[in-house]
């Protein structure tokens, strides 16, 4: 699995255009050492950053996307990026069980 750009957008009543609440790009926002991703920073400004524990770090740069950008690779076994809810709730989404819509897309130029 590879990911070049992932952007989640929410729209509440009266919002136009959409306001990004989660945006990940491999071209910026990746914190890595020796190809192991420890953090993927949310570029939307909402600070919904993702983190990886040492044993669960995905790789970056081993494979490329079809457009030649570096890709983040997950091994399908134990690699994962998580949002630490100890940092507070996800910013930009309604609280609790309130209605919400989330659209995810992967885009390759």
In words, what does this structure look like?
The protein has 109 residues and is mostly beta strands. The protein has a domain of 72 residues. It is built from no helices and seven strands. The chain has a three-stranded antiparallel beta sheet, with no helix packed on it. Strands 1-2 form a two-stranded antiparallel ribbon. Strands 6-7 form a two-stranded antiparallel sheet. It is globular. The N terminus is likely disordered.
Major sheet summary line: 3 strands, antiparallel
Structure class: mainly beta
Helix content: under 10%
Percentage of β-strand residues? 25-35%
Low-confidence stretches: 1-16
Short description:
The protein has 109 residues and is mainly beta.
Q: Which key features would you list for this structure?
A:
three-stranded antiparallel β-sheet; 109 residues; 7 strands; mainly beta; 0% helix
Task: Please write out the topology.
Layout: E1 5-10, E2 19-25, E3 30-33, E4 36-40, E5 50-51, E6 59-64, E7 70-73
Antiparallel strand pairs: 1-2, 3-4, 4-5, 6-7
């Amino acid at each position: 699995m590879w990911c070049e750009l992932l952007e989640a957008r929410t729209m509440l009543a009266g919002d136009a255009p959409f306001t990004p609440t989660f945006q990940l790009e491999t071209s910026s926002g990746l914190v890595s050492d020796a190809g192991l991703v420890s953090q993927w920073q949310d570029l939307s400004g909402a600070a919904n950053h993702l983190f990886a524990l040492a044993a669960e770090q995905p790789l970056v740069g081993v494979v490329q996307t079809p457009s030649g950008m570096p890709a983040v690779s997950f091994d399908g076994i134990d690699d994962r990026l998580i949002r630490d809810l100890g940092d507070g709730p996800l910013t930009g989404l309604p609280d609790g069980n309130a209605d919400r819509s989330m659209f995810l897309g992967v885009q390759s130029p």
